[in-house]
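Task 17 of the worksheet. Students: predict the tertiary structure of the chain below and write it out as structure tokens. Keep your answer in the requested format; marks are given for formatting as well as content.
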Amino acid sequence: MKRLMLVVLACTAFSTAQAADPAAPVNEIMQEAVKGWAEEAQSGEDYFSEARLGRIYSQDFAKTYREAAKFPAYDEGDSPFDYDVIVSGQDSCSIKDLAVIAGPKTDGKSDVKVTFDNSHCFGERASDWKPSELHFMVIEEGGKPVIDDIVRTGETGSLKGELQGIASQGVTNPQ
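Model answer:
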């Protein structure tokens, strides 16, 4: 009986640890990107589908996205973006050398660093070329890890900040 109880406790501890893995929602988004940009791309679920907004993003991020989505980038669209925010462009090669590395939790957030090569098919690269890099800021809500922001290196910065700018611009300059 004691042995059975220990096995049950170990399984519960393992499943709780798995559930709290800050890389879990990030892996889901990155696997969607890999599928979407594969040599023979597979259609999948939008990074920001309603189902995902309610499941793997923070309430604040989901609210910010929904506000920005009121101002779609295209007349017939429903996305506030006119580019793929994960690969940071409209064109990409298949994703190679994907690495997802969860950092320690600091001030209630885990920085999950993602690197990948999505430019290998464009020919020669500059000698200072580096892989694409994203930082997913993951917090815990309702006992599970959720994405609160995606920070892109370089000029684009915070995705949540970009969404706030789109919503603000849309309110002040309705079309």
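Marker's comment: The longest helix spans residues 2-19. The chain is about 35% helix and 25% strand.
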